Amino acid sequence: QITTLINHKDKPKRSDKTLQAIQRVGQAVNLAVGRFVTVGEAIANENHELKEEMSVACIEARRAGETIAQLTDVASLDHPESDSHITIFTDKTGVVKAARLLLSSVTKVLVLADRIVIKQIITSRNKVLATMEQLEKVSSFQEFVQIFSQFGNEMVEFAHLTGDRQNDLKDEKKKARMAASRAVLEKCTMMLLTASKTCLRHPDCESARINKDGVFHRMRLALEQVIEIVTDSRPNGENEMAPISIYSGIKEFKNKVEGLRENLYFLSKENLSTMLEVILEHTEDFTDSAYTSHEHREHILELSKQAKMELEQLVSVWMQAQNQKTKDLMEDLEVAILKTCQCMNELKREVHSAATSLAADLLKYHTDHTVLKALKITGVEGNLEAVAEYTCKLSEQKEQLVEMCRLLRHVSGTEPLEITCIHAEDTFQVTGPQIISAAETLALHPSSKIAKENLEVFCEAWESQLSDMSLLLREINDVFEGRRGEKRVYLSLPRPGKHNANLKALKPVKLDTEEQAKIAKLGLELHLLTSDVDSETEKWEDQENEIVQHGQGMSSMAYSMYLFTRGEGLLKTTQDLFHQAEIFATEGTKLASALHALSDQVRDDDKPLLLLEAEKLISMCKQLQATAKASAQGKSATFTKVDACILKTRNVMTLLCQLLPLCCKLLRKNKAGNGCLKPAPAWKEDRIRTAATAHTPERRVETFGIKSLENHVTNMTFLESK
What we know:
Layout: H1 2-6, H2 16-46, H3 51-71, H4 92-137, H5 141-168, H6 172-201, H7 206-231, H8 246-259, H9 269-287, H10 294-323, H11 327-365, H12 370-381, H13 384-410, H14 415-444, H15 449-480, H16 513-538, H17 546-565, H18 574-599, H19 607-629, H20 635-670, H21 683-693, H22 706-715
Helix pairs in contact: 2-3, 3-4, 4-5, 4-7, 5-6, 5-22, 6-7, 6-14, 6-15, 7-14, 8-9, 8-11, 9-10, 10-11, 11-13, 11-15, 12-13, 12-14, 12-15, 13-14, 14-15, 16-17, 16-20, 17-18, 17-20, 18-19, 18-20, 19-20
């Protein structure tokens, strides 16, 4: 909105419509700033150590918002340029200054709020650690039940906070690390419960103590990693040394080689030779592995030798070209570059084939979990010799799977997938010995139900990780073959092809710059309407009301259509837009049904108006649905259809802006004094609500195993009687 104001064209003629649009944008900015600052002030009141800084930033933001509103108060002026009143037309620099102050102060508020969120996560982590220390020292079931109940509640709080944070992270690598740490905490919470119970039941059993200590240690490491990610720091100031994969090494090497086409002098031959040496050193992970097939090993060694020869040839031609730039030499250089890159591509393909074929074979071989089943049976029988035999087999299996993860990391293709491979390797490395100690405990106490339950929990974690590896392998193959699309699917958006079989036959069309510009104005109107609808829905006391929920859903979809007009968001093609319009129309029809239901509750004299508006909405939604479903062949027809869909969506949103206050008024009237307007919510509650109903569907809160975790806490009440 600010960009729209700053970039508006100074035309000599200004229509009433232009003046009204400018005023509306200015008012929308001021209202948005007002809502933002209200939250900032609430945060300041709850956090005294940052109150002064936050209050100053909020005052600055509010002042800037009011200045923008004053400078854009032009709709009532017939001749703004001849009036003494200062406006955007007479003082554009004033708007620029106010905009800069606004952006600066808003940034300050966001940074201060972020510091508070980080502090909340650290405080929550400290609570969890303190309770864990108490859990380690308990000696009675009754005391354990009480403390674990508290621990469960603290873990749920930590899960919510870190889930929000994970969604807020922009760095995909950090997001993957956070997801891995939170996955460890989720699984370890149940392990901690059964391992502690086993230790309490068998206090003199060494294997039970080792088993429990392993869980506590792993949870502490995961908690520490979460704090490292949140605070962007490493213990003792260490720098994180990310292991280099073969894929990333080859990618960087090829970029440098291809850069020689533009500049012959930007790097030295020693740099290129060193880069190749590092890549070939990593291929030794494959050639030295006992699990790499003879055929793959031979091919990798052959290609490594060839890569050295191709680089030697490239360096020779390159050095000559530096001294004498003849046409023949430049052609020879181009051939050398192509041959070097081709050789590296073949090497990449070979290591990918070696890693993925090994993974596929191992996962298929271990899919029946024979060793785990045998450990459970021999443990219940109390057969220590058989348990020892199968623990050796599990150790061998663990080594195979750890090696598989190391090799897959080299060919994963993206940093998040690399981190997932490292997490999987750690999981197998740690869970294997924990299964062994749990099985030994059961073999020593074969009649112990809790020891049996404990072994089951660790075996389930192993099986779950194997299942995850199958999904990871599929994703790695997708990246290699270029099949990977969007990073994530947002359930609030329709997925082309999922709901409508006819979509398969239609080719998506992208709009060019000129056509984007034509619908940009219409898109801005749609954006302003979504702000109006959101303002109206916020006034409802009952946020669970069906009318509010449909209104919020329609606003979110209309906002994604506005983003499309800017060439942004998740609607990438016209076909995505048409499908979104269909879903929007369906949501509008559902809203009309809710209006019919409301008409049964209101007084007779109010009913006709409400039913009339509901029928109007149904008619508009049918028109929009028909437009979205109509076929459009050719670029011109497609653009006309895009324009019509957005125009009809705007008309529905305009009607929605009138309907929401009408419904609220009728409900207030009907409830005989029970107010429909709600007070401003506390900022903490508002954050959770906003996450679910914000314009952008990207704000989805993921919390690890919260349902299951809450169930564990609830079920603890039965532990003592057992």
